[in-house]
Amino acid sequence: MIIGLFFLSFQTFLALLKPKYFIFSYLLYISSFLGFLPNDILLAGNEIGLYFHSLLMLTSFIIYNYRIKELPKYIKVMLWGTFFLYLYGVLNPVLNGSSSIMQSIISSKEFSTIFFLHFLFINRNSYSLELIMKNLSFIGYYFLIILILFVIFTYIPPHYIKRPGQIQYNYPALLSLFLFVKAGQTNLYISRIYVFILVIVWTVGMYYEEHTAIMLTTSLGATIILFRIKILRFAKNFKRLLIGVLLSIILLAFLPTERYLNKIYETPSFRARAIYNVERIELISKKPLQGYGFLHKSAKELGDHVYTESFSFIDSGYIDLLGKFGIIGMVIYLTILTIPLFKGNNDLFSTSINVFFLQYFMVCITWSVFSFGMGIIALCLAIFIQFIYKNDYKH
Question: CB-based burial of residue 34 (10 Å sphere; 0-12 exposed, 13-18 middle, 19+ buried)?
């Protein structure tokens, strides 16, 4: 515990006084220190590490808030919109008498990683695009090496072992972002082949990691970017691409596809998820517009339903958002995150970042990438990279 508290003190110094170095130390922390040390920092039996980092980033945003005037209006809307959405999620169950303020804060731990976005933008003058890329590349190459070592030698750092024969890394979206960035940067044919090999390593390695949805969308999306497949012309028009993704989700949801999906439906994990989703939807239907906020597991609304820490669902992204924020909050949240990607013209690199972002709408069906840190942290980096590239680097 003493080492953990010392590390948090060091992180406080970096976040408030040396933000240039905070990104690397933050990525190091969420990576379980490259898999060799646990990232659980306990205080009075509670894990405080992840939320403490979020609190640091929020504090930085509040202290240096005067810098926000330098940012475009749509970025201000995104930052304040997500801030007030978080505040709503914390206060909703408190005002309804469902949870104490401390219970609500504890339940907000994963979503609070959204303040990484606020930290990046409020300290934007501390970062160059090259610095961000170096940090992302370090993490990206490291985890690709880990995947290679696992597949060939079944050797990996101890804190990435889920069980014999299976690797577990909680932030594969960071590796996905790295691959999309590399795909968008390549021009020479030999470079495309090199990045395609990295995509193959990702595909094979993630098969053992079992995040199938993001494995498939990343492999497909990065390949399209790399080899300039004709659909890329369509992808460069962000509005068309967004509409195409939304239509695909609607088609998957409503078309009679039973005969093609019977094998999936019969798997134990899918059947269990379907049963749980019925219960979740019944509960959400009582407050469909406003949601429940960050509801603690002890709240009376949950009755006999058992949750590990809060009313949240890591395996059903849209249902998780509906449970937290309702229909209104979910639409507002997804809209303000999407708007920055509409700005400016899209070249190959920008299109690659857009495709990374839009894959989330597909992955969110089975994985809560918009509301859990495993997806939010990479999403914050992607939005920030896109902004710096279009507003500073590109010009």
Answer: middle
pTM exceeds 0.85: yes
Amino acid found at 312: S
Q: Which amino acid is at 11?
A: Q
Taking residue 33's Cβ as centre, other Cβ atoms within 10 Å add up to: 14
- Between CA 29 and CA 53 the distance in angstroms is 10
The helix, strand and coil proportions of the chain, stated in percent and rounded to the nearest 5, come to 75, 5, 25
Contact present, 173 and 213 (Cβ < 8 Å): no
Q: Is 100 left (phi over 0), alpha (psi -120 to 50) or beta?
A: beta
Q: What is the pLDDT of residues 83-125, one digit of tens each?
A: 999 999 999 999 988 888 998 998 899 999 999 999 999 999 9
- Span 358-368, mean pLDDT? 91
**pLDDT tens-digit readout, 114-156:** 999 999 999 999 999 999 999 999 999 999 999 999 888 888 8
Block residue for tokens 């939320």: 51
Task: Tell me how far the alpha carbon of residue 204 is from its chain's centroid.
Answer: 22
Q: CB atoms < 10 A from the CB of 200, how many? A: 12
Alpha-helical regions (H) of 44-171 = 49-63, 73-95, 101-107, 115-122, 129-153
Two structure tokens written together for 186: 């390549």
Please give the Cα distance from 21 to 56 (Å, whole number).
Answer: 14
Please report, for the chain, the start and end positions of each structural domain, with discontinuous segments joined by +. 2-393
Bridge partners of residue 310, in order along the sequence: 296
